Amino acid sequence: MKWVFVMCAMVALSECLIQVPLEKGKTARELLEEQGLWEEYRLKYPYNPMAKFDERFAVGSESMTNDADLSYYGIISIGTPPQSFKVIFDTGSSNLWVPSIYCNSAACNNHDKFNPGKSSTYRNNGSPLTIQYGTGSMTGYLGYDTVTVGGLAVKNQIFGLSQTEAPFMQYMRADGILGLAYPRLSASGATPVFDNMMNEGLVNQDLFSVYLSANSQQGSVVTFGGVDPNHYYGSITWIPLSSELYWQITVDSVTVNGQVVACSGGCQAIVDTGTSLIVGPQNSISNINSGVGASGQNGDYVVNCNNIAQMPDVTFHIHGQEFTLPASAYVRQSQYYGCRTGFGNGGDSLWILGDVFIRQYYSIFSRAQNMVGLARSR
């Protein structure tokens, strides 16, 4: 399989790192902007980044959101012989699901669909699965099959097969989602893929790590069972989790030009590869955007593209360390809508450190220690 590669230290094959390359494709927003449909889409499917972290959906059904800016996906396969799918590796959810041949929604018609009848290792479970999005939902049922991720064959993995999907999914490049959060979050009690990797001894260490390239379409990668020193420099800051449901940590404060603009006295944040922006309470996000010179416009915070080099850093103070984002990291440029920041409005108190943050900081997710490790990305 051309999308899989394995890195091994010269000293021993046991030091192999199992890696899945991630493609950085066009986002749903970019595709809609090209077609002149973004404003219509934005109003019809308003972005609710906190939907997936709503406690009402934390157990029993999986909650997701319609993030139009997600751009990273990797390839896995399901079944024997393998059927390939593009999935978002999402640390903010716990279930694996892909479209099935029994789905006739518009969103399924332009994505690859799993055919259980063509897999000799498929077993039906039959239990229903519902994933509640910010707007609309995905419904389907559960089955078992061999799921291959980065060359690792996870046998009898439970996963969802969609029968209906929310309309906005038709604009996303990825076919489905592979959740990497804790099993307590998993809908229908389905064991997450990484838990089965650990249980079956397929990984050397009970951790995985994520590197997201900032500018290139290539180079991003999820590494299972280890840490790749080629993707970071300096020391790793290990941060204990404040909750073992999502990858949740405590942020001490957020500063601009040395002044605290958010999280005074501390706040809770989730490190989430399945959210594109940095999201926080509206007042806090407004303070950050005001501090960097951005103004609100149609739900976005926009800046003059000519001012990026002069804009201040935004620093997250976490576990006694400073994690700084320069303007080049937090400003996104569109040929249709100019420049806007990567700080978005969210819920009442919880923050999300999404791809804008993870592109700057190589992120390690340790189930063995229940910690998140952060180091400066190369």
UniProtKB/TrEMBL annotation:
Q: What is its EC number?
A: 3.4.23.1
Superkingdom classification of source: Eukaryota
* CDD domains xref list: pepsin_A
Recorded GO terms, molecular function?
A: aspartic-type endopeptidase activity
Quote the Pfam families the UniProt record gives: A1_Propeptide, Asp
User: Which residues does the UniProt record annotate as the domain Peptidase A1?
Assistant: 72-375
Note the SS bond partners: 103-108, 263-267, 305-339
Which residues constitute the catalytic centre?
A: 90, 272
SUPFAM superfamilies in alphabetical order: Acid proteases
- Function noted in UniProt: Shows particularly broad specificity; although bonds involving phenylalanine and leucine are preferred, many others are also cleaved to some extent.
* Membership in a protein family: Belongs to the peptidase A1 family.
Q: Which PANTHER family match?
A: BETA-SITE APP-CLEAVING ENZYME, ISOFORM A-RELATED (PTHR47966), PEPSIN A-3-RELATED (PTHR47966:SF22)
Its recorded name reads pepsin A
Q: Which organism's genome codes for this protein?
A: Siniperca chuatsi (Mandarin fish)
